[in-house]
Amino acid sequence: xxxxxxxxxxxxxxxxxxxxxxxxxxxxxxxxxxxxxxxxxxxxxxxxxxxxxxxxxxxxxxxxxxxxxxxxxxxxxxxxxxxxxxxxxxxxxxxxxxxxxxxxxxxxxxxxxxxxxxxxxxxxxxxxxxxxxxxxxxxxxxxxxxxxxxxxxx
Length: 154
Fold this sequence. Notes:
Shape: globular
CATH architecture: 3-Layer(aba) Sandwich
Strand content: 15-25%
Distance between the termini: 50 Å
């Protein structure tokens, strides 16, 4: 029996979205796989510049706690998780350096509000030499929609 594929899943605000659940279900149907969710920390305000590694950890832990049971159900086996570096590409590199992965699934907000897409994260992640699947959320979470409307991005 072949070794299961090891899949790195990278998400934050979209970690519990139906699109990501469907991507995990589809990948599970293709063959045996294990999944590890990495949620990059998301510092706010001045913490982005002053101490990004010391901020956003609790929020990322809450995202993990909410998403892991849903992802486990979608995968049909236990999904593990960890909080990652605030810079999502560094979180991917750290995970790859610490583990052995065969594929990456990146889940982002919609293009109009996604900082990760504006940073070209998906293309940069392909640079590590692993196949990358990109899942774009159908819509932003409610708080992000309100923020986008406030700045006229809607």
